[in-house]
Every structure is written in structure tokens, then in C-alpha cells.
Amino acid sequence: MSSVEMVLTAIAAIGFSGLPGWLFPSRSPAGQRLTTALLLFGSALGLTGVAAAWLEGGTPAWRVPWILPWGEFSVALDPLSILFLLPVFVIPALGSVYGLDYWKQADHPENGGKLGFYYGLLAGAMALVTVSRDSILFLMAWEVMALAAYFAATVETDNPDAQRAGWIYLIATHIGTLCLIALFSLWHRATGSFALEPAAALPAGAAGTLFVLALIGFGFKAGFMPLHVWLPGAHANAPSHVSAVMSGVMLKMGIYGLVRMTALMPGPAAWWGGTLLGIGAVTGIAGILFAIGQHDLKRLLAYSSIENIGIIGMGLGLALLGRVYGQADWVLLGLGGALFHVWNHSLFKSLLFFNAGAIIHAAQTREMDRLGGLAKLMPRAMILFVVGAVAICALPPLNGFAGEWLLYAGLFRTLGLNGEPGVPAAALAAVALSLIGALAVACFVKVLGTVFLGTPRHALASPAHDPPRCMLAPMVVLAGGCAGLGLFPALAAPALERAVRTWASLPGAAPSFTTLLSWRAITGLGLSLVALAGLVLLILKLLPRARGATRPVTWDCGYARPTPRMQITGSSFGQSLVALGTFLLWPKSHPPALRVLFPRAAYFKSLVPDTILDRLVLPVFRFAGGQLPRLRILQQGQTHLYVLYILVILFILLVWGR
Amino acid sequence: MVDNIIHIALLLVFPPFLLGVINKTKAWFGGRVGAPLLQPYYDLAKLFQKEWVLSTTTTWIFRAGPVVTLACVLLAGLLIPLGRFAAPIGFAGDLILFAYLFGLARFFTTAAALDTGSAFEGMGAAREATFSCLSEPALFFALLVLAKLSGSLMLGDLLRGPLGGFAPTVIAPLVLIAIGLFIVLLAETCRIPVDDPNTHLELTMIHEVMVLDHSGPLLGVILYAAAIKLFVLGSVLLHVLAPVQLATAWLNWPLFLLELSGLAVAVGIVESIMARLQMRHVPYLLVSAVLFCGFSFILLVR
Hints:
The structure holds two protein chains of two kinds.
Chain A: H1 3-15, H2 30-56, E1 61-64, E2 73-76, H3 79-102, H4 112-131, H5 135-153, H6 160-191, H7 206-222, H8 231-237, H9 240-264, H10 270-293, H11 297-325, H12 328-363, H13 374-377, H14 379-392, H15 399-413, H16 423-452, H17 469-487, H18 493-503, H19 513-516, H20 519-542, H21 570-580, H22 582-585, E3 588-590, E4 605-607, H23 611-627, H24 639-657
Helix pairs in contact in A: 1-2, 1-4, 2-3, 2-4, 3-4, 3-9, 3-12, 3-17, 3-18, 4-5, 4-9, 5-6, 5-9, 6-7, 6-8, 7-9, 8-9, 8-11, 9-11, 9-12, 10-11, 10-16, 10-21, 11-12, 11-15, 11-16, 12-14, 12-15, 12-17, 12-18, 14-16, 14-17, 15-16, 15-17, 16-21
Chain B: H1 2-13, H2 15-29, H3 39-48, H4 60-79, H5 94-115, H6 119-150, H7 155-158, H8 168-188, H9 207-210, H10 216-241, H11 252-273, H12 282-301
């Protein structure tokens, strides 16, 4: 089997991995096990195919004509596809194993099989998106992916929140798809073919339109602000391993689309890069500010995904600017940083969503302010959470830092170019990135402190426990990935370098990653940081009275009887930052009215609604819902009348089209 | 090689002396004799001999806070040049690592504060997390200015001084970032007017309140790490403030220590003549640091 055939077989195996599950009784675990086995087999085969394609070099392709009048079945495995295929093959496979304990068939007889089917379909469709080289095939895979994600996320039919979030997602993704249909039609007109091959030249004016359409169409999927409206709700209400796949991999399909289209279009304009850099910075800062304001653990993680998408967007913007100004190092560091962050985010965000699932599994709630003190009950989950949190805050020595390090280096290098107006503004993105980093630390310390540290705030329905084996193992693998890529980022360098050189043809004398940055220094310093911390700990242990610590209650300035209710809550931890971001967040709070002496028991409520969705989109839709029923006058319920409408419109088009 | 050994030795030994200088300055302003200059060393020695007291609420995070912080500041100290002597470790892009090491320290310090389950320490952690979101952009603006001036991404070159000497167009931005960095230094090392290391009113503190429950050796590690942080950030600021070097190479070591002690005296003077700001006014001060550094950047790239 050639590498492409292996990958295509893998896609088929993964895509239909859920089918055998339906052959078994709904309460039997055999179906789910078979589904997982098939998905694991498909992923292993896919990874083998990817490895084979990598070793072959070049771009192995596979094409057959089909019966449709347009396009053809054309796939290829170039380094860009390979780079995006890796998370597609790894994360869903881990999620499927995780699901064995998280979404047991025996506990969910009514929807377990359905979830397994759509989950596999989602993973297979994503893999097909990344390899297709024909826009019609791409659109079909894209649509399957969008629908499979909808059905997987709304699998709980009795959960109204999930259903509502699902509707918003369905509308948003289809607005995006409409833009993509327009994009590919225009692409066909400009290049004369539906094939996704580099265009030699585009007619004047078309390139800009194509870019804007791609930005909006793929931006809906990736979650750039203000197109992110569907994202928090859908991620929060989906089963956790589906959230992990949606956030860790599916959002990246939007990024992939944007990267692919910009690779195909010759001669980008400076405003493309500038726009992406600006949108990325705004998305990053606003995303993490919204995350800080959330009370729901999974909504918080979803907003943090928006932030990370913003960071990736900044990298892509920088790379586009590099192509415009002929700066190979900006291209390498910008796109390299963005693509590295794609990998990194898929590792640590899946880890964190799996972790959130473990917490929900154990504590039966997503409300952070009802949790607390889980560290003692779930010590393993906590260690894994700390790894994920440090990685997502881009702190050394984990992988988040390695990715952002590339990006920072690229942004600082924009200072070297003099005389081009507007370029100094690009360096401001470095300041935005530093702000995002500081806010992310606040955000994830809030989660760690509220959920895992301190004492339990409320009695839990059942005693919390460390996640069972099938849930724990995928998390350990992901945490290992975070540490491995963080300490040895040079491992990723060849894949990134090849992908970047596929995206833009850099001159032969252009610098490479190894000459631009010293990757070994990151390895060395990461290891020495770990060693130094170990050394300090060792010295502390050797101190004369290190053994046998006294264990009183928390001193708390001498207050003898601290209670769990006296702890700071997640909301109050984030309150001052939410207040600083009021102009963006518009938080709502309902303080109790204190009018008399000795007021009676009262309650306080605070909420950070999504500014775009709750204050703009929903009111507009509600207004439209109020006004549009007037058009029902056209809707008489008589089929022949509807056919008449079609006839009339066809006539109009016939006349107008001439 | 010898210089590297001196660098490491100074990094390990000298920092508590700066705290002594600050306290002596404050005592002098208050008309007191004050504690001996070496008092911080005595304090540390005493703390390291005490027994461990750990609240039943806490987990390993509580111990990780001080340990990780010390490791981070030590590593950061190896990345900066002291005076005219090159840093022991230097590579292109190390300035990002330098800044993010402090982020890692902050992550574990604030988490350790939350680990106690106390409202006071939680408030301190929230303040620390909030204010750092304002000081971080100031620091990065300053780094941008220095990178632009030196044309390098290595802290060693960055802090060596501008490429084309000190033209007036260069001095203005440098003065502005010196002011901004001094404010960041005061905020990051928890000095007046942002924070008061001596107050014991929990409601008004930032850093001190985060470590209320740390005692004995762990408190010693925290104090030691705080002193090293002052030493490291002070050295960065000195490169902007005092780029003058002596011709005889080895004389630069005493010169550097003298300059650093002078900076400590300046911090002491600020502490003596200023009151601590109201908590709600602290963001204004930090925003002004961002403004100083931001304007400096604009001056440079205009």
C-alpha cells in the first residue's frame, strides 16, 4: 500500500468506526470496545501512512474522476497536510479510549452508539479535509465534519442547554460554509478549476475578496472574534472527549483552511497580514479576559481556546507580512510558531478538557465555585492539571513556551526592518502576546486554586475519586507530549520547517530554524530549571529539622476556626481583572440591597455573558424572529404554489443571467 | 571562566545585602540606627534552622511555590550580564525566557497562596495576578525598545547599550524606559508605593499576604528569592541607567556592586519619602509605567 492509500484506508476505518457498535445490544460494552479498537487501528494505520509519506518526501497524491459534473476525487499528502494530520490521528484516538470509562455504553444505552458513530465520522471527516486537493471534495468533507460535530455535541437529547448551543453552532457553521461556497466559486472563476493547486496569478481585485471570504468562512470554524459565538456553548455542553476533539482538533481545521488558501494565493497584500495580526491580538486578549470571567469550567476552557486561536492567527499574520516584505525569517518564525502552537494547543487543551471531564465525572458539576479541595481526592488528576495549566500559560519548560518563543522571536525581528510604514505596529503584537500570557496565568491559577486547592466548598453528591484507568492513560500520554515537546522542541523543527517551506517558497539562501534560533538552549535551560528546582528541594530536605512537620490548621492571621465558605472564590479571584476589562466584558452583577441594619440573608449573583452573542446576535435574531413571520403570507402550504415560485425564480435568473 | 564564577557567587551571596541597605536607608531617614547591614543574612540563617509548619489544608503546591520561585530567579540571574561582564548563559531569544521565568514563579506563588484556603492569601494572589497583567506589557515595551536600539535578541547585547552610541535621539527613549522599569522594579519586588514589605495589615498587602502561612525554611526561601529578584531586576535597570564602564576590567566588579547598592539606597529613599498607594490607585501607577515605556517605543520608531 502506498502512503496515500494507507491514509485513505485509515480515514475510512476511522470514519465508519462507529458502525459495528450498532450491531450489539445497547447495554453491552462490546460495541464500544470494537468501535474504539477500529478507531485505534485506523489511527495507527494513518500514522504509519503519514510516516511513510514523510520518509518519501515530496507530495504523494492520488486522484480519480467521479460521477459529479465538477471536481474530482483528488487527495495529496504534502508537509502541511502531514502536520495537521498528526493531531487528527492522535487526539480522537486518545479521546475514544477516554470515552470507554467516561461515556460507558452501559450508563448511556440510549445514545452511546450514536455518539460513537458521529465521533468517528467527525474524526474521519477532519482527516479528509486536511488531505483533499479539490474544493468540491473539501466542501463535502467540511460539511460532514460540521454535521458530525453537531450530532456528537448534541447527543444528549434531554439536555436543553446542549440542544440550544447545538442550534447556534449549526447556524454559525453554515454561515461559514456559505462563505466557503462563495470562496470556491470565485476561486473557480479566477483560476478556471476547482483544484486546490497554487494559482500562478489571480485577476486584480479577486485576491482581496478571496482572502476576506476565506477569513470569514474559516474564521467561523476557528473562532476568531467576533465569529466565535457558537464556540463556548457548544464546547461547554458537549461530552468532554467531544469537547476535547472539537477544541483540540476541529478548530484547527479553520486554521488549516486559512493556511492552505493563503499558500495557494500568490502575492499577498500587506493588509492581509496586518488584519490577521490585529484580529489575532484582539481575539487573544478578549478570549482570555472572557475566560477569566467564567464560572463554568468548560466554558472557561472554551474561551481559552479562542485565545489560543488568536495567538495562532497572530503567527499567520506575521508570516503573511514576511511574504509581502520578503523577510524569510518572519515567515519561518511566524508560521513556524503558529503551526507549532497548533500542535501544542491540541495537546494541552485536550488534556485540560479530559481533566474537566474527570472532574465532572467525579463531582457532577461544572460550577467551579461549588468545587474546591479536589487535590486531596484526585491527586493524580491534579498533577496532570498542573502540567496542562503550566503548558497553556506558555510557561517554561513545557511546550506552550517553546511555541510562543518562536512567535516572540519573529515579532521582535520585525524591529529590524526600517522605512516601511506600519511595520512598527507589528512589534506591538509582542506586547499583546505578553498581556495574553499574564492574563492566562491569572486565569489558570484561578481554576487550579478554585477547583483543586483549599477545602471543599460544598458537600459532593458522591466522594470524588481519581479518574479510572482508561481516562487516566490518555491524559498521561498528553502530559508526556507537553513535556516532551517543551523540553525537546528541536524534535518538531524538521516538520515545521518543511511545512513552512511548502507554504511559501523561500529563497535558497534563506535562514533555517536551526540557524535562526538555538533550540538546544531551550532544552538545556528547561532541564536545568527542573534540576535547579530539584536541587533547592533537596537542600531543603537536608536542613536540620526538615523531618516531621507540624500540621495545624491554616493560620489565617490567628483565626482559629476557618471554614470553607471563608475561602476566596473563583469569581472574586477574577473580579478585579473583570473590572479592568469592563469595557469589553460588560459583566452583570446583582448585588443584594443592603438598606437596614442587620440585613437578613441575601444572595449575590454575577455573570459575564458573551458580549457578541448575548448582546448583539441574539437580540438581532429575536427581532428578526418577530418581524419575519409577516413573510408567511408567501407560505400557503400548497405544493403547486411553491413549484410556481421555483418556476418564476428560474425565469428571472434566465433573463438576468444573460 | 573566573568572571562566570564571580557572577554565580555574587548572585548567590550578594542579594540579601541589598535588603540590608534598603532597611538601613529607611532607618537613617527615620532617625534610627537601624538593624545591621547584614541582618537579612542572620534572619535567613535563623529561618533555615526552624521546623516546618504546614497547614492541613495544603498540598505539594504549597511547597512548590517557594522552591520553583527560587529556581526561576536563579536561572534568570544566569541570563543577565552584570556590569560589563557577559552573562554565563546567552542565546538569541533568551529575553523571552527571562520574562517568562518570572511568569512561572508567579504561577506557583499565587497557586501556593490559594492552597491555604485562606481569604487573605487568596486576595493577595488575586492582586498579584491582576497587577502583573499591567507590569508585563511595560516590561515588554522596554524590551522592544532595548531590542530595537541594540539590534539583537540576546539579553547580553540588549543590555550592553545602543549600537550607535548615545545620540540624543537614543537618550530620550532610554530615560523614559528607565522610569518605566523603575516602577516595574518597585512593583515586582513588592516595595512602596505598590506594596509594603513591613506592614502587617493583611487587607492592604500583596506579596506579604500571599506568604502569610509560609514559615521557617520555606519563608527563608521566599525572602531569599525576593532578594535575588531585586538583584536581577536591579541589574537590568542599571544597564539602562549607568552604562559607564571603567578601563581596568576587574575594577568593574566593585563598581557594579557600588551601583547596585546605590539603587538599593534609591529604593530606600522612595520608601522613606512616599506613602503606600491606595490599593485601587496601584493600577494607575502601573499603567503609567506602560505609558512611559510605550511612549519611549513610539519615540524610537516614529
